[in-house]
Amino acid sequence: MSEEFEDLKPLSFEDDTDTFNTRPFENLNEEPVPLMGSSNEVKNKDSNFVFFFGTSESGKSVILSSMLYYLKSQAGDLRPKKGIPNTTEAEVLLSDFFENISQGILPSRTTRDKVTRLDLVFEPNNKSKKIQPINLTFLETSGENHNEIRRGGSYHSSIESYLNGKIPLTFIIVTSYDTAHKDDNLINNFFDILEKKEKNLRSINVILVVSKWDKSGKMGVDSIEELDDFVKVKLKMTNMRLNTFGLSKTFYTIGDVQSKNGEQKIAMLSLATAEVLSKWLYESIHGFPLDYEGTFWERLKFSF
Ligand SMILES: Nc1nc2c(ncn2[C@@H]2O[C@H](COP(=O)(O)OP(=O)(O)O)[C@@H](O)[C@H]2O)c(=O)[nH]1
Ligand SMILES: [Mg+2]
Questions:
Q1: Do 99 and 232 share a domain, yes or no?
Q2: How many domains, the chain?
Q3: What is the mean pLDDT of the chain?
Q4: Going by C-beta distance under 8 Å and a sequence separation of 6 or more, which residues neighbour residue 299?
Q5: Residues lining ligand 1, CB < 6 A?
Q6: Do residue 5 and residue 58 come from a single domain?
Q7: CATH for 86
Q8: Which range marks the domain in which residue 21 is found?
Q9: Same domain, residue pair 194 and 273
């Protein structure tokens, strides 16, 4: 069978070797050859990938932009990773995020069927040797895509490739204070998908975030039980999953959101919950808390 191909050389594309499959034709009998140009391989895997899950309007972009703003304005330096061709779009997204949120403008809507990838380096301003810079790759997706997994559906291929790639993933599952009860089933479908893809829920980083907590009339909780009770009542199945696998949960608010001339604006920005979630993210990836105090000697050295 392979004889008739003998004279053919494998195709090669000098600049684009990882976009096109260059496997020799001899493999024809062994396994299906991937279609040319339909590469779903994740590129530049050397990073910590952070995947936001949630229906549209649940608050994913607001959480992402305020976390980035917290990391950059209070916790250290955050910059595009060198040597990675960040799409122009991603860089624009990043500078829009910073500029908008500091002016109280909410992020705009995310395009469907596309994963915008932000490759960043975060360098903490904590100078302890234990506190190292980390690579962070945020994946911004559209909420409509997450709806497609209801009742056993599957994801658009651009999202699938990240879930299938052998890369370190953190999942931030977002549901909002006012609509959480409608998301219980969908979040469970998502856990099912992760388990089907043999992601061990015990060993990957997952956190449930209840967004828009200010809609409760308060900016925070009076006790931990308040959040526990909320999840227990509104997200029954999700709550079981979280407890079984010992997964984390938290609440989130961007501050005081007001409607002015039919448009929503942030009247007062709060980064308190952005700080909590960012610190959880850093510690779950790096193993040491971002505000680690360091040893006695380390503290002495940096106090001069
Ligand atoms: N009150 C309040 N509203 C929020 C908050 N976060 C988001 N929203 C509202 O929810 C809308 C959708 O948020 P967005 O992050 O774009 O959702 P996404 O579609 O999941 O990315 C925003 O435009 C705001 O109107 C919050 O913390 N508090
Ligand atoms: Mg969005």
A1: yes
A2: 2
A3: 82
A4: 293
A5: 54, 56-62, 106-107, 110, 143, 211-212, 214-215, 253-254, 257, 264
A6: no
A7: 3.40.50.300
A8: 1-39
A9: yes
Kindly report whether the global pTM for this prediction surpasses the value 0.90: no
How far, CA to CA in Å, does 113 sit from each of 16, 39, 141, 147, 189? 23, 16, 8, 12, 19
User: 176 alpha carbon to ligand 1 midpoint, in Å?
Assistant: 9
Helix (H, G, I), strand (E, B) or coil at 258: strand
CA of 267 from ligand 1 middle (Å) equals: 14
Q: Which atom of ligand 1 is nearest to the CA of 257?
A: 1
Backbone angles phi, psi at 27, to 5 degrees: -75, 0
How far, in Å, is the centroid of ligand 1 from the Cα of 264?
Answer: 9
Considering all CA atoms of the chain, what is the largest pairwise distance in Å, rounded to the nearest integer?
Answer: 75
- Asked if residue 90 and residue 30 are part of one domain, the reply reads no
pLDDT of 23 reads 39
Nearest protein CA to atom 25 of ligand 1, as residue: 264
Alpha helices in 103-172 (DSSP H): 143-147, 157-164
Q: pLDDT above 70 covers what percent of the chain?
A: 79
Closest ligand 1 atom, CA of 63?
A: 15
Same domain, residue pair 15 and 91? no
Cα 237 to ligand 2 centroid, rounded to whole Å: 25
Q: In this model, does residue 8 exceed pLDDT 70?
A: no
pLDDT in tens, 25-75: 444 445 555 444 445 678 888 899 999 999 889 999 999 999 999 999 999
Q: How confident is the model at residue 11 (pLDDT cuts 50, 70, 90)?
A: very low
Instruction: Give CA–CA dist 72/87, Å, rounded.
Output: 20
Q: Which atom of ligand 1 is nearest to the CA of 62?
A: 15
